[in-house]
Design brief:
The complex is a heterodimer of chains A (about 220) and B (about 240).
Chain A: E1 6-15, E2 18-28, E3 33-38, H1 44-52, E4 59-64, E5 69-72, H2 84-94, H3 99-112, H4 129-142, E6 147-151, H5 159-173, E7 177-182, H6 185-188, E8 194-199, E9 202-208, H7 215-223
Parallel strand pairs in A: 3-7, 3-8, 5-6, 6-7
Antiparallel strand pairs in A: 1-2, 1-4, 8-9
Chain B: H1 6-20, H2 22-41, H3 44-54, H4 56-62, H5 68-73, H6 85-118, H7 126-147, H8 155-177, H9 181-187, H10 192-205, H11 209-212, H12 216-238
Chain lengths: ~220, ~240
């Protein structure tokens, strides 16, 4: 197995008296799709926010071997005064993409995720929920991430878009690592290579999916 | 993201917010119309004085809705701000707001100054008054920015204006009872440390007052309070976590 893209060691986070994450130790490997599973409120989003630096861990540490990290939140939100193209312009500027390079990239990505490019002249909060999610994918893929983190990857997407996303994840796997957090097990097991299961803030199981009967059985076994 | 890319990012994001905020456009155009009206109806001198006393409000109005809504909207949970970069973005907002307010203020001041010099209506006290106005503006920026951690939308500006309205109402009542503060403000006489501190407290609510009644105690006091509010903002941002959505 290659060296980990992400290595978390005994991560912990409390909100007041609530211990949201405790002793979370896990690895995410390159060229693999890692499924991050847990029940509602198990601590999945908190772990993602710790990794992304939106929260500070109270204990433990993590190391990232990725230069460009993409992130698609469960419910993406955008500055309401910026249009889609302006947000991409900010992203291009922030990550040092040239104008022509960025424009070509937008064309390719819009086709890839079936996003109507004309929507970019509007503000994202006026898009449908599905298109907001797709725009968030567009923004994250635009930076050519070597590590893509997605919270609820299939939320708000129609069946055709879900199928497109599965194909997209398989293509991205060749370029870097993916960490997909969800409780939609049936969709995750179609693309996943590895799994991490979190229960009540603790990592209870992790490893490659190969050799296990199916993700649902695995999840139900560890969630008991 | 390289650090050199952070300020242009703030400029792109917050610059567009400042431009697209209707209240900012209204404030600038209303301010210019007021100055033009005073110039045409009365004199250049009155218009220039009105500019000097009112220009700190540009800093206050530009500071509306600085932090709270952005922090709680979820928009900072974005690839642009991963790795804790939302903190440097929020920290650099003060610089951008100050630069915008300074830009507008300097353009207007230059116009007045050139006309004043050309028509020999320039007075030696004007640079000192202008500098005091900029200090009052910096105080507004620091205070309103700090308040915007706790107050939504433009209520950080509203609460400052309400405080000033309450101060005026208080002064009106005390003036009729002759208890002193209003008289001292009018006469610009502050005998004893108690009266000086009283004036200093008034200038924390209405910092524009230091433009007319400058004293080292007031200027230093206002500067210290501005530095304190900037320090509190910095501390709040450096310890900030994006918990809510």
């Amino acid at each position: 197995m290659n060296a980990a893209v992400l290595r978390a060691e005994r991560l912990g986070k409390s909100f007041g008296a609530v211990e949201a994450v405790r002793d979370a130790t896990f690895d995410v490997h390159p060229k693999a799709i890692t499924c991050f599973l847990g029940e509602n409120g198990a601590g999945k989003t908190t772990v993602l926010k710790l990794i992304l630096g939106f929260l500070r861990p109270d204990w433990g540490r993590f190391s990232l071997a990725a230069e460009r990290i993409g992130y698609v939140p469960e419910r993406p939100a955008f500055f309401p005064w910026l249009r889609g193209d302006q947000i991409l312009q900010c992203t291009a500027r922030a990550f040092g993409l040239s104008g022509g390079e960025a424009d070509r990239s937008i064309d390719v990505l819009c086709r890839w995720i079936a996003f109507d490019r004309r929507l970019l002249s509007r503000k994202p909060h006026t898009y449908s929920l599905g298109n907001q999610k797709k725009f968030s994918y567009l923004q994250s893929l635009f930076i050519r991430p070597d590590f893509l983190i997605v919270d609820e990857p299939f939320a708000a997407l129609d069946p055709v878009s879900i199928r497109n996303m599965r194909a997209l994840f398989r293509q991205l796997r060749a370029q870097g690592a993916l960490l997909l957090s969800s409780h939609l097990i049936s969709e995750l097991e179609k693309v996943g290579d590895e799994f991490i299961i979190i229960k009540a803030g603790r990592i209870v199981a992790q490893g490659p999916l190969a050799g296990h009967p199916d993700l649902e059985t695995l999840f139900l076994h560890y969630s008991r | 993201m390289p650090s050199r890319n952070r300020l242009p990012l703030t400029l792109l994001i917050s610059g567009r917010k400042l431009i697209s905020a209707k209240v900012n456009v209204l404030v600038i155009s209303g301010f210019i119309l007021l100055l033009a009206y005073l110039w045409v109806e009365d004199s250049f001198s009155l218009s220039f004085r009105a500019f000097l006393y009112l220009c700190p409000f540009l800093f206050l109005f530009f500071s509306q809705d600085m932090l709270n809504d952005e922090i709680n909207s979820g928009a900072l949970e974005n690839v642009l701000f991963a790795g804790g970069r939302f903190r440097s973005y929020l920290l650099s907002k003060n610089v951008l707001v100050a630069a915008c307010a300074l830009g507008v203020t300097f353009v207007l001041f230059s116009g007045f100054a050139l006309f004043g010099l050309a028509t020999r209506q320039w007075e030696a006290r004007i640079p000192g008054q202008f500098a005091s106005g900029l200090l009052a503006g910096a105080y507004y920026l620091a205070l309103a920015g700090f308040l915007s951690f706790f107050l939504k939308a433009g209520s950080n500006v509203l609460i400052v204006l309400l405080g000033q309205a309450a101060l005026f109402a208080g002064l009106l009542f005390t003036a009729s009872q002759r208890i002193g503060l209003a008289e001292r403000l009018t006469a610009s006489s502050y005998p004893g440390i108690g009266a000086k501190l009283e004036f200093l407290a008034v200038s924390f609510v209405l910092p524009n007052i230091v433009i007319a009644r400058r004293s080292w105690l007031n200027l230093l006091g206002l500067g210290a309070m501005a530095a304190l509010f900037f320090a509190l903002q910095t501390w709040k941002i450096k310890t900030l976590e994006l918990r809510k959505k």
